[in-house]
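Why do we care about 3D structure at all? Because function follows from shape, and shape follows, mostly, from sequence. That is the central idea of this module. The next example makes it concrete: a single protein chain, its amino acid sequence, and then its structure expressed as tokens.
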Amino acid sequence: MSDYDPRRTPAREDLAALHLKGFVPAKHYVEGRSMRVIDEVIALRPRPESDCSIDTQVLHGEEVIVYDIDEGWAWGQLVSDGYVGYMPADALHKTPLVPTHHVPVPRTFLYAAPNMKSPPVGALTMGAKVEVRAPRDDFMQVTSGLFIWAAHLAPMEEMRSDYVTTAESFIGMPYLWGGKSCLGLDCSGLVQIALHAAGISAPRDTDMMQAELGKDVPEGAPLRRGDLVFWKGHVGILQDAHRLLHANGHHMQVVSESFAEARQRIANKSYGEIVAIKRL
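And the structure:
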């Protein structure tokens, strides 16, 4: 295993996951420990530095296999998509939490009391996972003791079938490199969170998605709602044969626009020609 993708392989020169022993060289090998994110959303970075770029974000309740904690930084691998990186150690907790519900709406508030007039004490974004303790009127109380509007939660096994409709709920939300929440998301973050909401496993980056998702649509074949359009470094979702939905740096937000116009602009100004169209 001399040629591996460091984005999804928990290995450094000094340390690697125990299951990689004999495949990836490292000075030491360790068994990881399961932890979960207790903050609303945290950044996963390529280095233990708060001022470096964001590779992706990790949502409340997500499971992380942690291999090292040093000077306030945890280094580990996300269970959801296998991404490896550094995140704040104090945002993780070794907890027996077993999520029972997820957030299927772009954003919902956390309340200290089951009352919509009480001031919110936090918020969760789509894809966050919680363990529900008990219903309380129109709310659900979670293990933290806080309350979430019941209609903003769905059982873990209940998924949205139309990932395009899910992606459309993010229209107008700001572009953020590495983001995958309603506070900001990038092109592949939008696609990943929409697919995950439909119960479809998806990797994080555009090259991974192009390689691993769906089947190629032959050149000249009719395009359909839900087709994924790939450029080198960019991805969008077709709402139909004529409209493209994508998070992009040109508008700095999620937009729905003419596919023909976007295709020409992208070819001329940024990512070049389309490299693939995939159908799930």
